[in-house]
Amino acid sequence: MDKSLLDEFRLDWRLAGKAERTANDFTKAILQLLATQPEPTLVDVKEWLSATSSPAVRRKRGQAVRAFGKWAQDCEYEVFGWWKQVPLAREPQRPQQTVTEVDYKKALTAASTLRDKALIEVLWSCGLRRSEIARLQVDDVNLGEGFFIVRTSKTKQPRIAPLSPLARQSIRRLLGSRRSGSLFSMTTNAIRLTLRRLDVPSSHAWRRGWAVRALRCGVSETSVRAAAGWSSGAMVARYTRALSGELAVEEFLKSWN
């Protein structure tokens, strides 16, 4: 197979607004396959998938082959024509830590600086990724209308992230008279270490807690997706899977009342 097709696949993936990291991971996996089987068949791929004992790795490999095969079919390239028959391994579902209001109040109590308090309010209010918080500039804050402009995200697409009234107050105190520069002046590692110092869950757990809380409060899935920067409902389902039964009960109670 002509490996230049992989460069075109990766470029088209990015032009479609999909995550560059995923394109790179898929390309790397296909190159690993081609290193052992330059012209792979379906049987070759199945043997390659079974060569690892990790269900997560098998699933990622299968997803890479399927994604490339579908792209090739759409482009009318005669490669990986059997991609639909590639099996996807099932990963065991593990409980995911999700921040609750108890964690939020605990974090505020432990926070001793304006920056720590503002960080907690932003995580609880916006569910931003660590990298997105680290990149925030003062110019990205609109306190009057209550939102952040997230200019660079995982998907490379800018978006607006709403700010709660408490988060706006904390940001206003943090800014003081500043009118430019980095909002938090923190790296992603500094944010991670701050959360560890405060003895509270990771930023991913805050992101999950934010999504669950928003849905509980009646925010539509469409709005949650837009604010989080998710292109489909799959990520909403992934983040809220552990509490889906509880959310369903709450929604039915609201409908009956």
Could you give a short description of this structure?
The chain is mostly helical and 257 residues long. The chain is 59% helix and 4% strand.
Can you describe what's shown?
By secondary structure, the protein is mainly α. The protein has 2 domains: 4-85, Orthogonal Bundle (DNA polymerase, domain 1); 101-256, Intergrase catalytic core (hpI Integrase, Chain A), CATH 1.10.443.10. It has 13 helices and 3 strands; from the N terminus they run αααααααβββαααααα. The protein has helices at residues 4-15, 20-36, 42-50, 55-74, 101-110, 114-126, 130-135, 165-175, 188-197, 203-216, 221-228, 233-240, 244-256; strands spanning 141-142, 147-150, 159-162. It has a 3-stranded antiparallel β-sheet. A hairpin with an 8-residue loop joins strand 2 (147-150) and strand 3. Helix 1 runs antiparallel to helix 2 (20-36). The mean pLDDT is 88.
β-strand number: 3
Oligomer: single chain
Order of helices and strands: HHHHHHHEEEHHHHHH
Second-tier CATH architecture of the largest domain: Orthogonal Bundle
Provide the residue-averaged pLDDT.
Answer: 88
